[in-house]
Design brief:
Elements lengths: L5 E2 L3 E2 L4 E2 L3 E2 L13 H4 L20 H13 L7 H11 L16
Helix pairs in contact: 2-3
Length: 107
């Protein structure tokens, strides 16, 4: 719950001014607990949740990395030769190769 730092902006015609009690921010402006949108509608206040917004929802980064590796391995996405070889090895599309530039001698 946000701290009550602002003054309530609910207009009170009987007093000819704003409520003025400590309030927290809402979309309609700062409101005290007696003048929240839920209180004015006659409903109870919603319980505080985890506070997730669409931007804060967990994303499957590993899934996107796998899709990206598949696109690189299939040649559908540009990459460096080293990244291409690593992606092919990670997705099972080709043999894993060493990064050394000199070929190994067979005994």
């Amino acid at each position: 719950m946000a701290a009550l730092t602002d003054e309530c902006g609910q207009w009170l015609p009987g007093q000819g001014g704003h409520c003025g009690r400590p309030a927290r921010p809402y979309a309609c402006g700062p409101r005290c607990p007696a003048h929240t949108p839920a209180a004015l509608a006659g409903r109870p206040e919603p319980t505080p949740g985890p506070g997730y917004t669409p931007q804060r929802l967990p994303t499957p980064q590993s899934a996107s990395a796998l899709v990206d590796a598949r696109a690189v391995a299939a040649g559908k996405r540009r990459s460096t030769p080293q990244t291409y070889r690593l992606a092919r090895a990670a997705t099972g599309r080709g043999p894993a190769q060493n990064d050394s530039r000199t070929p190994r001698r067979q005994p």
